[in-house]
What does this fold into?
Amino acid sequence: MSIIDKVVSAVTPPESDEARAKARAKARSAAGPGDWLSLVLDHHVQIEAAFVKVKATSDPASRVKALRELGTLLTGHSIAEEAVLYPALAQADEKGHATTAYAEQSAAKLQMGLLENLPPMSQEFLDKLEHIEGAVAHHVYEEEGNWFLDLKSKLSAADQAKLTQRYAEQFSRYMGKDLKAA
Ligand SMILES: [Fe+2]
It folds into this structure.
């Protein structure tokens, strides 16, 4: 299956809303104040809100602007994960999870690029946006429900602190502003 088909098939995440809420609550309780996991969870919430914002727009200019904000946030977050957290997963004997994580995020980047070229108020645009939203929701569930909990439990406090610093650095470099204001 190509990465295009893979993301298109993910319009509805296989897990229920309840399962996703449960995974998030568990990940929240595993996170420490201001640590990499809490930053990741905050960014996941911001990404979800950014999808809703795009869908709520009713004219082309606001939709294009909201899409740009979503794209920037998705890219900033994914780049920080790809540069810092997925290598840490691979190092913690979770190479399979790391490989899936990179593949899913590449597929989302590709689809976001294609989305930019569709007429913003068309049904085709909305369909693709919802496919991407579903694929991202599933990816987030995998991270929160499993992959990142493993990483949290496997690393020493010193390694966790390093991840926090590096994740924050990479994210704010892409976003070009203070992390908390992102
Ligand atoms: Fe993520």
Summary: The chain is about 80% helix and 0% strand. Residues 178-182 have pLDDT under 50 and may be disordered. The helical segments are 3-8, 17-30, 36-56, 60-91, 95-115, 123-154, 157-175.
